[in-house]
UniProtKB/TrEMBL annotation:
Database matches in InterPro entries: Acyl_transf_3_dom, Acyltransferase_3
PANTHER family: ACETYLTRANSFERASE (PTHR23028), ACYL_TRANSF_3 DOMAIN-CONTAINING PROTEIN (PTHR23028:SF53)
Organism: Cryptosporangium japonicum
Protein name per Swiss-Prot or TrEMBL: Acyltransferase
Bilayer-spanning residue ranges: 50-67, 88-108, 146-167, 179-198, 218-237, 249-267, 287-305, 326-345, 357-376
Length: 487
């Protein structure tokens, strides 16, 4: 079972991030040296851009989970402002450092082997705001991979709106039914977008296949993984949950399926290995195969099934997890470092040198990424996290000083129910629960329980008056205040 830190962080996913980042490095070095274009390893190296698919599914899983939990009254509601600020701190400080480094060490106008590349101030502004792909422009050789970062940022902006629409309501089962429809729509948008753009050459020239709609189905696959535990808590999606549970308890089977699907993507059915444009059917085949491969690869890793496997053990190794922590920097800086090494080693395009260029690029990327993580990424994220938590505390404090009318004390809430005003730490996924509960429970509801009026006060008990026999000394006149009604 995956090691879980405080807050529910899955260590195994750090290893997956490292695997995805170095896969992207491998495909770029393979293309530069020609090993991903022809030769025995060409099909494998050319398809290592599959690492981007892993990144998108991880984002869908990790970031959507808190919204689902909150909708089903299991976790505090994520604050949209805090969510966006933390995403900003995660992306932009290191990314802007990349732009500065690229401007310093890569000339604005230089020979890239087959043409002269020119980068203008307008291009740099578009890069700085992650809007370059919307202008049909991606001119700099060392920044061609940033399109995926633009897609990630678009998803961050769209996610709170998607959650607000698909998770509205107060009855969990109705929420999950609405969730089914919403995810189905997201699944359909990706392939349909690709089919439409391939029929409009002008849109394809504008890099429309690198916009968010083309990859919504990949994010939706991660969102499905995020919904499975919550679906179990309300007994929704029974067939899908049982199928997922059966597959997750056999990780070897899942990864064999993923391997077969990835092998299919290495065939010509998924398109050429070069930059030649793929046909509509090739693009669609590659797109669907990549998504399915990533889903089956991640399914046993995010499952709570208590199974161990050599791959899971390898991905949770502390050294692999450390590489996962700095993987964002590896992804960012590897291209500019690779082209700097190409110039230093005087390597020609498509003329070999993979065995030299790949380890040097990996080593340089690790060093620069570690510095970026220590100096920029971690301090920026810690600062924003403190500020967003302080803002939530200030709101609570200001609410506390407002005088409230006197009212009878409400009954104490049961232990374990979180306060809705506490901000969700969405950088950490939550503790995973079972997908298939042992026994189904009745439908829960988040509708407030009506307050019944207090019962009317009971009448006072009757007074027991002593009986005094006649003729006794006590049979003297009784004071009026002590007389019985019959007296």
């Amino acid at each position: 079972m995956s090691t879980t830190k405080a807050g529910g962080h899955l260590d195994v996913l750090d290893g997956v991030r490292a695997l995805a980042a170095f896969a992207v490095v491998g495909t770029h070095v393979g293309f530069q040296t020609g090993r991903a274009v022809e030769g025995f390893w060409a099909p494998f190296l050319a398809r290592l851009d599959f690492g981007v698919t892993l990144f998108f599914l991880l984002s869908g899983f990790l970031l959507y989970r808190p919204f689902v939990e909150a909708a089903l009254d299991l976790r505090p509601r994520p604050q949209t402002t805090a969510f966006l600020w933390r995403r900003f701190a995660r992306i932009f400080p290191a990314y802007w450092a990349l732009l500065v480094l690229t401007m310093l060490i890569r000339p604005w106008e230089h020979d890239v082997g087959f043409t002269v590349q020119k980068t203008t101030w307008t291009d740099w502004i578009e890069y700085a705001t992650l809007t370059h792909i919307y202008f049909g422009d991606n001119p700099h050789q060392a920044l061609t991979h940033i399109w995926s970062l633009t897609v990630e940022m678009s998803f961050y902006l769209a996610l709170p709106l998607i959650a607000a629409v698909s998770l509205k309501g107060r009855r969990p089962r109705r929420i999950m039914r609405r969730q089914t429809v919403a995810l189905a729509v997201l699944f359909a948008i990706g392939p349909l977008w690709g089919l439409v753009i391939h029929q409009i050459p002008s849109m394809r020239d504008q890099l429309a296949l690198q916009w968010l709609p083309a990859y919504l189905d990949w994010f939706a696959l991660g969102m499905v993984l995020a919904c499975l535990p919550s679906a179990a808590s309300v007994d929704a999606w029974p067939r899908l949950r049982r199928l997922a549970e059966d597959l997750a308890t056999a990780p070897g089977t899942c990864w064999i399926i993923a391997g077969i699907l990835f092998a299919l993507s290495m065939t010509p059915v998924a398109g050429p290995y070069t930059l030649e444009a793929a046909t509509t059917s090739q693009w669609l085949a590659k797109h669907l195969l990549y998504g399915a491969t990533a889903f089956f690869m991640l399914l046993p890793l995010v499952s709570p099934a208590p199974r161990t496997h050599p791959l899971r053990i390898a991905l949770t190794d502390k050294r692999v997890r450390w590489l996962g922590e700095i993987s964002y920097g590896v992804f960012l800086f590897h291209l500019v470092l690779m082209f700097t090494l190409v110039d230093a080693l005087n390597l020609e395009l498509f003329r070999g040198g993979f065995s030299t260029l790949f380890p040097l690029t990996v080593l340089a990327a690790i060093v620069v990424a570690a510095i970026s993580y220590r100096v920029l990424e971690r301090p920026a994220q810690a600062y924003v996290r403190r500020r967003t938590r302080r803002g939530a505390a200030d709101i609570q404090a200001s609410d506390a000083v407002v005088p409230a009318p006197e009212a009878p004390a409400a009954p104490a809430e049961p232990a374990g129910v979180p306060e809705p005003s506490v901000p969700w730490d969405y950088d950490q996924p939550v503790q995973l629960g079972p997908w298939v509960p042992e026994s189904a429970t009745d439908e829960r509801t988040t509708e407030p329980i009506p307050h019944l009026p207090p019962p009317s006060p009971l009448p006072p008990p009757p007074i027991e008056w002593p009986t005094i026999p006649h003729g006794s000394p006590a049979s003297q006149p009784v004071p009026p205040a002590q007389r019985r009604p019959s007296d």
